[in-house]
Amino acid sequence: MGDQGQKGVQFLEEAQKKLKNTQGFLSSIFGGGSRIDEAIDLYVRAANSFKMAKKWAEAGNAFIEAAQLHLKQNNKHDAGNFKTIELYQDMGRFTTAAKHHISIAEIYESELVDFEKTVLHYQTAADYYQGEESKVSANRCLLKVAQFSALKADFQKSAEIYEQVAGTCIESPLLKYSAKEHYFRAALCHMCVDVLNAENAVKKYQDSFPHFTESRECKFLQTLINKIEENDAEGFTQAIQDYDSISPLDSWFTNLLLRIKQNIESEPDLK
């Protein structure tokens, strides 16, 4: 393994010993926190040793352990900094870098609820996968970018990504039927901005993918567009309930649909 690799292993073992010593009741009162800080330092030293030994996976895992401990200590900004894995890009290990950026994104998504950082790291992971021509993995990350971009009200970016992924799915016999889901989400993003944008988008999707025309998603979108044009918030809500009773909508959809409904209710009634 080499000297640096052996040092990395030793630092890991020392870090784990420090953590075991923080688990007792007395330790939690007398110095438990300082031992956790020492364990974090040891994990970082282990990661740096593994980097020098070109043990990329071990280095990444050690950084992740340090970051997780920082999260427990509520040092949230430090947690993000420890998990910046730029060294993989320098070494051409794009797939490894992508996986670690996904790990970072998942922490920001679930632990820190920071959508901006979540989007940043999923986008970086997607870029790395694209560098390796890993389209399926890149698309998986891009869909996460689209999901959280919409929740940040960046509807244009979200719609463009869903359309891009749908376009790649259409080219694949195995994936083409998943395109309707992506077009569905893209149209709702357009609808959050302007009903005319949504109407034009749906027509474009029908031209690109004729199977979309007869789908429940497309018919639902057309119903929603009609209700918006009629300024019928009650009918809009009923259409959602009817659709949801057969095809349950997750929180992402309900978040966007609520926003669209609020837009209808804020419009003056011209009837």
Write the layout of secondary structure elements.
Elements lengths: L2 H18 L4 H5 L2 H21 L3 H17 L3 H7 L3 H5 L3 H17 L4 H17 L3 H17 L3 H16 L8 H15 L1 H14 L7 H14 L3 H14 L4 H16 L5
Helix pairs in contact: 1-3, 3-4, 4-5, 4-7, 7-8, 8-9, 9-10, 10-11, 11-12, 11-13, 11-15, 12-13, 13-14, 14-15
Function: Required for vesicular transport between the endoplasmic reticulum and the Golgi apparatus.
Subcellular location: Membrane
GO biological process, one term: intracellular protein transport
Please describe the structure with a list of short key phrases separated by commas or semicolons.
15 helices; single chain; 0% strand; 271 residues; elongated; mainly alpha; 79% helix
Describe this structure in words.
Helix 3 (32-52) packs antiparallel against helix 4 (56-72) and helix 9 (135-151) packs antiparallel against helix 10. The chain is elongated. The model is unreliable at 25-31 and 87-92 (pLDDT under 50). It is an all-alpha fold. It has helices at residues 3-20, 25-29, 32-52, 56-72, 76-82, 86-90, 94-110, 115-131, 135-151, 155-170, 179-193, 195-208, 216-229, 233-246, 251-266. It has 15 helices and no strands.
Shape: elongated
Low-confidence stretches: 25-31, 87-92
The residue fraction in helices comes out at over 70%
Q: Using only CA atoms, what is the Rg?
A: 24 Å
Order of helical and strand elements: HHHHHHHHHHHHHHH
Summarize model confidence as the mean pLDDT. 81
Biggest β-sheet description: none
Distance between the termini: 78 Å
Q: Can you count the helices?
A: 15
Structural class: mainly alpha
Strand content: under 5%
Number of strands: 0
Organism: Dermatophagoides farinae
InterPro entries: NSF_attach, TPR-like_helical_dom_sf
Membrane topology: Peripheral membrane protein
Subcellular location: Membrane
